[in-house]
Design goal:
Helix 3 runs parallel beside helix 4. The protein contains 5 helices and 15 strands. It has an 11-stranded mixed beta sheet. It is globular, with a radius of gyration of 19 Å. The protein is mostly beta strands and about 250 residues long.
């Protein structure tokens, strides 16, 4: 049965998951449930659910400039940094002549997801190549590696900055496998206390991209043949961009 004959008969969004009920029409209609996981933190100015921001970066501001009662439409002025919330770093973030988000090959930002589960790591503990090596056989060009520390549970809290971080040697060996896109559920793959950001420079210097501040990576472990999308806004000559990161099982959607 070709995909054009499939019909979404119901869908719902709850607990950062989008559920679809899909019908295959015919004399013997069948139904299947598909799941899409939202890996994105909410951009908000709420003080009750604060966001984590890299020290010194711009904070989010949202101002109503038009409302339905007065102008017959709602319009909001949004001000934020290119690395606010769940976002992606382009090579140009640390590499002067590196690609910007509008020039990057989008086909590299949607692909097979490989979750490296290192949730046993403690605050400010290093993630070494030895921690990642058992997944080496699945690492190759086109695979998007998601580093799961479980640290997204501390989003908006003071200890979010105390996340585990990647060892420089691990970053180099990861690039040797052909992987060029990684994602993490932390502020950075680097130690926030290290101003050199050497892991960034290794990955971005290899022409890679880094998605940061993802949430719910551990939920991707439950997906069969997971696909992840990390698409940025098309911002002219920009070093990074907020993204709406999502994951789903190949063949489901």
């Amino acid at each position: 049965m070709c995909s054009s004959q499939l019909q979404v008969v119901n869908k719902s969004y709850q607990n950062n998951r989008i559920s679809y009920i899909i019908e295959t029409p015919g004399s013997h209609s069948s139904y299947a449930t598909a799941m899409m996981i939202d890996l994105t933190h909410t951009l908000t100015t709420s003080t009750e659910a604060p966001m984590s921001i890299w020290p010194g970066h711009p904070t989010l501001e949202m101002t109503k400039v038009a409302t339905i009662p007065e102008q017959n439409a709602n319009v909001t002025l949004i001000s934020l940094g290119s690395h606010t919330g769940t976002h992606i770093d382009a090579p140009n973030h640390f590499i002067a002549d590196g690609l910007t988000v509008d020039k990057y090959d989008l086909t590299k930002l949607v692909g097979r997801a490989l979750v490296v589960d290192v949730r046993g790591k403690k605050a400010r503990e290093m993630i070494t190549w030895e921690d990642m090596q058992k997944w080496e056989g699945e690492m190759h060009e086109g695979v998007i590696v998601l580093i799961c520390t479980g640290w997204s549970q501390y989003w908006g809290k003071e200890n979010y900055e105390e996340h585990p971080f990647m060892d420089l040697d691990a970053a180099k060996k990861l690039m040797e496998t052909g992987v060029r896109v990684i994602g993490c559920d932390t502020l950075s793959p680097d130690n926030i206390c290290s101003p050199e950001c050497k892991v960034h420079k290794v990955i971005l210097g290899a022409g890679g991209m880094i998605a940061e501040n993802l949430r719910g990576i551990e939920e991707v472990l439950a997906l069969k043949n997971p696909i992840v999308s990390l698409l940025p806004l098309k911002l002219d000559s920009c070093d990074g961009s907020p993204i709406r990161a999502i994951a789903w099982s190949a063949g489901d959607i």
